[in-house]
Structure formats: C-alpha cells, structure tokens
Amino acid sequence: MDWRTTTAADLGRAIAAGQADPVEVTDAFLDAAERHELCGRIYARLAPDRARAEARAARDRARSGLLRGPLDGVPLSWKDLFDSAGIRTEAGTALLAGRTPERDAGVLRTATLAGTVCLGKTHMTEFAFSGLGLNPVTATPPNRYDPDRLAGGSSSGAAASVAYGLAAGAVGSDTGGSIRLPSAWNDLVGFKPAHGSLPLDGVVPLIPSFDTIGPLARSVEDAALIWQVMGGPRVDLSGADLAGVRIGLLRTVVGDDLDPEPAQALEDGMERMARAGAQVTDLELPDLPLAYDLGSALYAAEAWACWRERIEGSEDKVFAPVLARISSGRDILAADWIAGTADLQRLRLRAWEAMAGFDAVLCATAPILPPLAAAMTADHDLFRVTNLKALRNTRMANLLGLTSISVPAGRLSCGLLLSALPGREGRMLRLAQATLRNLA
Length: 440
What we know:
The protein has 440 residues and is an alpha/beta fold. The protein has helices at 8-16, 22-35, 39-42, 48-64, 106-113, 156-163, 180-185, 220-229, 260-275, 288-311, 320-327, 334-355, 373-378, 380-400, 425-439, and strands at 43-46, 75-79, 117-122, 169-174, 189-192, 212-217, 246-250, 279-283, 360-364, 403-408, 415-420.
C-alpha cells in the first residue's frame, strides 16, 4: 500500500495492526518531499530531526502496545503560523523572518502528546490575510490539478501538502475561509469548528475574534480524528445517514453569481442529498448583507491592531494588496469597532433563530474556480476583487459564528459547504460523512 495516498485513519489502523512502521512511513513522506520538484512551494521548512524522533517514539509505543490514540505515528503538516519549538515560524511574511519560538503552540503540543508526527511547516498567504493563496514574498503553493493555478488560502501549503501526497493530513487556520477554500479547490475535506473550540495560544494572530483552527484532510474521518488529537471530542461517525436531515439551501448572497461549475456541483449535490432522504428547503437570511458590511470593517480594524507595530516603517516588505487590505483598518475608531461588534452579535442571534429549524445550511464552498497565479500577480485590482469573491461564501460562517465544513462536490475544485450552529461540531461531522458518501 502507498502510505502517501491512503487516509490518515487507515494509516493509523495499519500502525496499530503492525502493518506499518511509523519510522518507515515518516521517512517515505520526508524523502518524497525532499525529492518533489514543488516542495519549495509547499513546505516553508521540513523538520526531519523532530519528525524522525517522534516517529521512533511512536514505533516504540506500537511495539509495546502503548499507542496513545488513532493517529499515533501518523505524519501531519502544520501551517507556518503555529509556533514550533526551535523551528522558525514566520506566518508567510518577511516581517517575521527568522522568528524562532521556544515553545510549541498549544494545539501542536496536544497533538504531539497524542503521538502525531510533525513533518514541518507549510507556506501560507501573508499574515493569513487573503484567500487566493498567492504570496510573492515567500512562495505560492500550487493547485493539485495545475501548478500555475492558485491553491486557495490562506492555508495554501497545508492543502497542497495533502493533495500532493506529502503529508497524511494538515492543520491550518480559518478566519474567513482559509481552511475550507483551499480544501475545496484541491478536493479535500476542510473543517472549521466554531470559534473558541480550540485554544489559540502560540498561534500567530490575524483577527483573534474570528481566528479558528482546524484540519485539511482526505476524508471526513481524518478531519474528525485530527480535530480530536488537537483537543476536540471524539466523534462517532458510524451509521451516519441523511434520512430526515433538514437542510436549508442558503440563497442570500452566497447563491449569487456562481461560476457554472460550482453552480452545477451545488445542484447535483442538493439532488443527491434529497434522494438520500434529506429535506432540502430554500432559506433566506435577510440580515446577511449587513453582516458582510460590518465584518469588513471589523476584520480590518483588528488586523491592523495586531500588525501595525510590525508594518509601520516596513511597508515595502509587504505584498501591496495585502498591505492595502490590512491598512484599511488604520482609521477605524475604537467606538465604531465596539458598536460594530455588538451589532454583529445581534445579527448572529437573528440568523441563529432562522437556522434553528435546520440541521445545517448548504451552499457552494466557493463561487469561482482557482484563478491563474500570473493574472493575480499582474493586476492588483483584479486580485482584490477576486480575493473577496473567492472568500465570500466561506466568510458567511465566520461572520455568523458557525461551525462549517467543506466536502468535495464531485467536480474538480468544487466543494459543498455545510454550516451549522456553534457547538454542533459532532453532528456536523456526521452530516458531512453521510453527505460525502452519497456524493461518491
């Protein structure tokens, strides 16, 4: 069996059964990465010494019957904003060049204690503040189907590491779609739990009021297990089905102006879900446009607060479109940010009330397909417009405080986005498992 293309869950089962050696598996991933012609666009840096030491410890536990969990010995990649002791963590920006933390981020510590192997740190968009995956400052990861097209961001290298068989699974962050968008464009599963479900200590911040942590994976089972080893609860996916599930087909904003491929993927997915027993009903959230308007100012203001001390005086080191976006928060008043936050919470409560009768809401993960990197590099106005559109659908869940997951829709680089009320992560994963089984 080729361990580089199997699921993380199957790899964990093979290790537990004595059919796979964690050291040999880790060496296979490291060797493949070191030889891969696109590795420099995927990994910011590998961590072979750490990975092999962790793999040897996992092998000893396996031989002694003392495995710590379902992913003990399984190699994962980590986005380059999770602190890693003694390994540079630079968040895709020259402003943090050489930054080397002394401690692991909390979720990395937890995952390491659960036995997972840290292969290294993956490239990302600068500060994590764009959704396309373009980063001329460090590197731009490739899309799995065409390396000239963008992988999606900001967890771009995370998605590419799994899609190219250079990691069994990946950990990323999501502030407006940064896990789910690259997952959709690379036909992976991307899971964003609700904000606050995992700790953010040791994670380079962008917008702490919206930053979340989650997995990019080959299957829903993998996503559930990676979430579990980071500190989430165990989720039983057995017996998941769509019979009687209530789905709200969200039309407001996220249904507008879809490219033909995502539009057809959504239509096909909705029909298959209905044939499997789901009750699909149109849903409108009339306050959603106002939530988007509020969110733009809130995002920019908090991002500027996090990064202004680094940026001021070093503007020439930042990719111009990202600089423009983050600098737009410079003149937003604290009073306006406080009032906007309160207004957004009121809009959330109204949306949650409208969603209360549904198990999840459904839309296309992205309204567009992956664009060409060269076009986005050459035209910054086009970059700005395309970036906002790419993130439009995923950002809905961040603004409304939802848990959300993207699953492959059966057409290349298209995903179906399922979102539910916060605290329903387990139900959401079961629903995604049943959905994906019916789309296969």
